[in-house]
Amino acid sequence: MKTLAAASAKPANIGALAAQFSRMREETAALVQPLEDEDCCVQSMPDASPVKWHLAHTTWFFETFILERFEADFQPFHPAFRVLFNSYYDGVGDQHPRAQRGLITRPSLREVWTYRRNIDQRMQQVFVAPLSDESAAEMATLVELGLHHEQQHQELLLTDIKHLFSLNPLKPPYKLLHTLPNADQLREGLAADALPDLEWQKFDGGVVEVGHDGEGFFFDNETPRHRQFVEPFSMASRLVSKGEYLAFVEEGGYQNPLLWLAAGWEWITQHKLAHPLYWQKSVSQFDSAWQEFTLNGLQPIALDEPVAHISFFEAEAYARWAGARLPTEAEWETAAVAAGSAVHDETDYFGQVWQWTTSSYAPYPGYTALEGAVGEYNGKFMVNQYVLRGSSCVTPSGHTRLSYRNFFPATARWQFSGMRLARS
Amino acid sequence: MKTLAAASAKPANIGALAAQFSRMREETAALVQPLEDEDCCVQSMPDASPVKWHLAHTTWFFETFILERFEADFQPFHPAFRVLFNSYYDGVGDQHPRAQRGLITRPSLREVWTYRRNIDQRMQQVFVAPLSDESAAEMATLVELGLHHEQQHQELLLTDIKHLFSLNPLKPPYKLLHTLPNADQLREGLAADALPDLEWQKFDGGVVEVGHDGEGFFFDNETPRHRQFVEPFSMASRLVSKGEYLAFVEEGGYQNPLLWLAAGWEWITQHKLAHPLYWQKSVSQFDSAWQEFTLNGLQPIALDEPVAHISFFEAEAYARWAGARLPTEAEWETAAVAAGSAVHDETDYFGQVWQWTTSSYAPYPGYTALEGAVGEYNGKFMVNQYVLRGSSCVTPSGHTRLSYRNFFPATARWQFSGMRLARS
Amino acid sequence: MKTLAAASAKPANIGALAAQFSRMREETAALVQPLEDEDCCVQSMPDASPVKWHLAHTTWFFETFILERFEADFQPFHPAFRVLFNSYYDGVGDQHPRAQRGLITRPSLREVWTYRRNIDQRMQQVFVAPLSDESAAEMATLVELGLHHEQQHQELLLTDIKHLFSLNPLKPPYKLLHTLPNADQLREGLAADALPDLEWQKFDGGVVEVGHDGEGFFFDNETPRHRQFVEPFSMASRLVSKGEYLAFVEEGGYQNPLLWLAAGWEWITQHKLAHPLYWQKSVSQFDSAWQEFTLNGLQPIALDEPVAHISFFEAEAYARWAGARLPTEAEWETAAVAAGSAVHDETDYFGQVWQWTTSSYAPYPGYTALEGAVGEYNGKFMVNQYVLRGSSCVTPSGHTRLSYRNFFPATARWQFSGMRLARS
Amino acid sequence: MKTLAAASAKPANIGALAAQFSRMREETAALVQPLEDEDCCVQSMPDASPVKWHLAHTTWFFETFILERFEADFQPFHPAFRVLFNSYYDGVGDQHPRAQRGLITRPSLREVWTYRRNIDQRMQQVFVAPLSDESAAEMATLVELGLHHEQQHQELLLTDIKHLFSLNPLKPPYKLLHTLPNADQLREGLAADALPDLEWQKFDGGVVEVGHDGEGFFFDNETPRHRQFVEPFSMASRLVSKGEYLAFVEEGGYQNPLLWLAAGWEWITQHKLAHPLYWQKSVSQFDSAWQEFTLNGLQPIALDEPVAHISFFEAEAYARWAGARLPTEAEWETAAVAAGSAVHDETDYFGQVWQWTTSSYAPYPGYTALEGAVGEYNGKFMVNQYVLRGSSCVTPSGHTRLSYRNFFPATARWQFSGMRLARS
After folding, report:
1. Claim: this prediction has a pTM higher than 0.90
2. CB-nearest partner of C41 from D38, D80, D165
3. Which pairing describes strands A354-360 and A279-283: parallel, antiparallel, or unpaired?
4. Minimum CA–CA partner of C44 in chain D
5. Of the four listed, C128, C373, D266, D386, which is most buried by Cβ atoms within 10 Å?
6. For C284-336, what is each residue's pLDDT tens digit?
């Protein structure tokens, strides 16, 4: 196994890190501002977590992996929190059952804020405490991991609250309650001015390199950078839109088993699914109209926006219906580089919807997990999941990488998951 | 069907009723005082409801059954509440799914308090509005029903919050947070000074009369008063204690199938039950000790108190082990009368634990439900449930009657349910 | 507890019993004649058992309760059978899991026939072996119990095979394959020549006696004979017909929650039930027609026959729709006596369909189970079940008694269960 | 999509095919010889099918895909069989629910044998009927597919009957009942004379070719042959043995979460798994011994044989414990070629146990399914499954190919699934 210190050899700029830490923690807090205490406590399904749990767990991460190691005379804020807010780190010890996170009304949200402030202050003290260069480098690497971890939970916090609100018959909006300072970061979807024609960009294939090259921050699952042999392929110039997906819905896509993987067909049949998550058809005596639940409440479907909240199964079936297929990870990464990685915020490879690939989530050749409990971060989930590439409209800025590998089961729909077509 | 008006023929004293209404609603509010907003939102299991839901549903009851009928120019407080806070009245319309009551973070608790205040004020206006005698009598009867309904939910609120807190690893106490004005009403259990010897009181049986005679308030399921033939029997002079039940636990009661009804044995086997709900054995290297979770937090088991939180199955098995049986409803009522109904607060027939009987919950001969949607109050639950008699330590004062029929499935344990033995 | 010997004081006529034993065992064998080996092996649902299991379990009953006690040098036929074919007698030891009875392809049916022949021969030897009067009386009582037990399984064998065949898309008939010697005993339903008008027979009520008086054979649950107080009531002169029930179906009975017990409504909603078990509507482009699956295969519904295969919930809802109610056990027994118990085969109280009562299955006052493992025969099932009275078209002749108490959960439908209406 | 005809361009030798057809069908029949009719009817779990269903479904395959197309005046043997014995071909129409295959006691086994004989005779008539060259080639390709399909079901028949018998407390053996002509083909496991030392064979990697080259028969999922880039790796010289796996069991492998994928740990915890399927520890007062259920009944564990009946999760955890990993498909195929494909029956790459790879079952680049309903053969299962390579001790001879891709979910254990280790 590799050590984190080895992964970040350059001398750590602790001062910059401390400032970044403060900013990141404030950004999380800002996301909670529009919410009631009660919104923060409830768990809408086992896959989702309460907002309060996100706030506490990300704090637990810093307490457990940085303070416990680098703080002199470390004392836990509350001994029970070690179990309560441990997500899945068996190396740290027991965990409160995931499906019961929503029963934890105590500590209250107020107490969790106290927890956060306490850990934040102690982190700042650790930042200014004298450390050997080696320890400083190691700590810097762990803090950086914690900050990216915090960003992941910023995105999950939004997708989880969207799911919770969608189950409320009052369909409450998330944003309209308050004006947020950074509200533009929290918008859902980027309204395309006008949907451009879909073009097919050709690639020659051959031996290509994929994965992270080791400069800057990365998760272990993005490494090692390695070669793959890729056949010639074409990639769609833009994402599949809601309007295009609606045609699939209305032309019977969910009624034709021949379009679906067998497990996908069984799943949509069992759950009576006939459209993406959050879509609904309002029917009156005069007409019917498709609507979608968004972070801004119930809205008419924005046909030119990229389709979101579809499962791998739905993406795969749509692609077959459209005479295409999903790309592999290597194809996606190759095409994304070509589309202009230097300016990746300006392409729709990023910042709109995560894009399902046909690649099962598996270790790259030569992959080794980090040493210690943080080694459980990624590796142990590499089975029965599919990789999504890119980033979404609720991914925090600065959390985007060409080599980033997001992953979810083939049935997951509550993330901003969409697709880009490929062809052989 | 009988009408409510017919059930309450005497001229209504609306002024007294208005005062009683205010007092009852304040008592409910006092129960919520020790709780955080988050405590009030979460549902710990489908059988239990969030505190906030109790607050809103009892309000909905007055809005739907009194204001909608007797208020001039009635407008609903919020149109969606008619569905959201309808428990099970099909005659009123659709209901929000019971198991999803905990997902309703909006309306917030604050908004539900506003709802309560609004309905309370409008109720007071209706109380002083001019009404025909007939309408006044009808309204009085419905208000009285609503007040007893509110008391039922006061008890459920406490049993539900106890269940929620029991699932929290921090085992938070309900009472110690705040000093309540009427804290003595909320105590859990009546510590017996010393456990008296159990004596057997003999009854001759014959044709007895049971059920409510129609004076004062009653639920429809307590009527009509009617005759039953009862064989000679003996009744225990006091309730079964926790210490006595502990002997059953420690002498292998939960390991011997011959003591149990077949369905009870299957149930304890499947759920690995080996003691009452809320009991736990703390084991250290030095010793082991039985504890119980109470509204005051985790405590050593109070051996002289009446056993509580047992199911019908457990009560029935204990009785067999003890060489006795559970009483029937008619036996219980006969013995309770003899024990001194006029002073029933001074006997342990009331105010300690509900007492399982062997009687299935069924209509009394000639039973008819009330007219209209309130007719769904009791009758439609008369299957696969068993009757409990008496009242518990968290039953509001004034909610106790000799003929009162409480009822729960044979597996229910989260109520303060215990037992009194009988013999043929 | 009472002993079986005490229950049968008269000197045992062992010779007659031996002949009765042979005849009864042959009647069971005759029922299996129309079946393939495979039909006898499969279990269609946990409530039902394979035919082969019925054959083996009834044999096990004689081996375990008679041979093991009265045969000199008893050796079990096969040691594993003690567990394999024990239904639910914890006093005898472990049991093969009920839901896995259908996995037992070995012993094969052929081997089970060998088992039956072996035990039958040994029983005949025991019948002629010298025994003290006391032992002979005890044995006679146990054999008699075993024969009535065998008759119960004859009925279950037919209802279970009907259920199995109903799930086969080929809808195979049971009878047409072979001509049975006693085929008229196995007919399903007694076609009423013409449906007589329904009349209401009035009863004065008062203190009545119910239960078995101890002459001849009875199950322990029918005793002791005891007094009950019954209010005046009326009883329908005949059973509810399929045609009458069809009107309930077609006039929206299954769509109106106000007709149903809450648990019944939840159950039919969850399972999407809209008619009795085995009914189906065949729809073509020209017309639609109701059919029912019978032991003679798929047939047009015989409208004048008594409705069968309805649950307690359906019977109870129908009664409410019809402005009536189900009778109690005591009412049913009182009316059946009046209808002429001496000639009970000529009334429709018997021999057509079991009739749901509103009485929960509970011990009669002073009930005690038999001593030893046979004491588990009845008592331990006295919870969450409802009593059916009478007998059905597939009840063996000689298995009918005025005091007979059949019992099933409120959702059971695969028995020939129907209803007779009552009114207060 | 490609057509089957295109896949098999050479002139069809129909005579040889007819002989091969007869032989293959007889081999299936021989496998059933040791079984009782009842053994053939029961379904032990939804993943498994009754023997009778295998017999009928393989017949249905020839009737539907060959006779229906090439027989003059085709008439179905029985119209209901089209649905009853359709496994999963949506292009053919509806299917009887998979989990209810065991309820089909009719048609009886005898009738299914009649069905087989009828279709076999009609197939022989079609073999000698005049056909155009193109039709003959197309038919030959479909027959060849049907024969390989039959072989797959020969293997499943044995693994399914093993599973059924394992659930019977009598633990019946499959083989000892009768002497089979080809009994040596049905042996379970190849007892290694002595377990050779495990050696690591090194491979340089680079761009390799994998997949079928199109000569002879193949399934569509093995194509197209294509290039992959492989890093240098080492492959174990032999399979992991039962003795080696037992060390993992006894040294706490199933108790250490850090060895397992998260989903695997959750699965073994939920199902309380602590050893391979069919293993059991018999404990007496004197000693304890590991046994395994085999097609020859319960036996002491043969420590030198390859471990079998382990899931992907178990294989993956064992590999981690052993400081190694599972190979990818490309690594396995590369190493198997090097081990001597020409003589593959003499290596343990084949004929012992299927070997889990770390490769998710996915389409090869450029994969297209066959045209028509047979196109559903493979492609629609390419999700959430993992590829196994090689063949097992119950794989029919002639069904082995270097490029063969078997696939099962990560939890499947009832196949003869084992593993070979790899290292980077």
Report:
1. yes
2. D38
3. unpaired
4. D103
5. D386
6. 877 889 999 999 999 999 999 999 999 999 999 999 999 999 999 999 999 99
